[in-house]
Give the backbone structure.
Amino acid sequence: MNDFIDYIILPYKTYSTLNIILETIATLFGIISVYYTYKRNILVYPTTIISTFIFIYLFFNWGLYGETIINVYYTSMAIYGWVLWQKNLEEDHRHVDVSWASRKEYIYTILLFVLSFLFVLMIYYFRPVIQNGFDVGFIDQCRFHYTKIDFIDASTTAIFLIGMWMMARRKIDNWFFWIIGDLIMIPLMIYKGAVITSVQYIVLLILSFIGLIDWIKSARNSQKIVS
């Protein structure tokens, strides 16, 4: 047990106080954003933007360039979702209707997964160039050599992108993808030495189950009102 505690604390001995504070803030806003998601409150998007924007800075400084670029995408998707939800607000100006994804939308998710997966692997292919300040002089060191973590990272990134896309379209199914991604990210973040961030995914996992139940109930209530 002591060895495990030492393992999760050790990375933070090399982090600056500023980075620890920023990781804590990003984690808190990430948790808050999921709370607003299952409440179907449009505040999910500004809180998501704050969290992902900070993580862009943190991941870049940690040398996790794939996560850096993906968080840029998360931020852009949050802006897209904010605009989309704003156009579909109910009379109380806070909540929106939700529904299940169609077969056609699931076909789109397959395409999104493949494209996202390949995109992240492309990023890791150019890792020598990125790690050396985007110096193209290191292009000859680029190789199709990937670790297991690279493939896991590419998969979870694709899963979360699908979740973000479905959430923006107010589809109940988005929660399934967040749950799967959270289950993978918890041990992955511990392995990468970002324990505070792993705590975020534990909380997000719990909130995702709550959100799934809440959205299913909401969809059923909407159907009763219509019928």
In short: The radius of gyration is 19 Å.
